[in-house]
Amino acid sequence: MKAKKKKNHVPFRLNILFLSVFLLFSTLILRLGVIQIVNGEEYERVSEQTENVTAESTAPRGKMYDRYGRVLVDNNPQFALTYIRTQNTKQAERLELAQKLAEYIEMDTEDVIDRDLKDYWIVTNPEKAKAKLTEKEWEEMESSEAYQLQIERISDKDLEEIKDNPQELEVAAIKRAMDTGYALSSQTIKIGLNEDEIAKVSENLGSLPGIEIQADATREYPYGNTLQTIFGRVGPIPKDELSYYGLRDYERNDKVGISYLEKEYEEYLKGQKEKQTYVTDKSGEPIGEPKVIEGQRGNDLVLSLDIDLQKEVEKILDEELNDARQYGATRGYVVMMDPNTGEILSFAGKEYNNGEFKDRTFGVIGDAYAMGSTVKGATVLTGYQYGVINPNTTLVDEVLYFKDEGKKSSYTANAMGPISDLVALQRSSNVYMWKIAMSMADYDYAPYESSGYDPAAYNELKESFSQFGLGVKTGIDLPGESSGLNGGISEFGKILDFAIGQYDTYTPLQMAQYTSTIANGGYRIEPHLLKEVHEPSEKDGLSDTILFQNTPEVLNKIKMSEEEVAHVQKGMWMVMNTENGTAGTHYPYFQSDDYQAAGKTGTAQIGDGYNLTLVGYAPYDNPEVAISVVVPEVNDSSSGSVNKKIGGRILDAYFELKDEAKKPIGYEEKETE
Question: pTM, whole model, 2 decimals?
Answer without folding.
Answer: 0.81
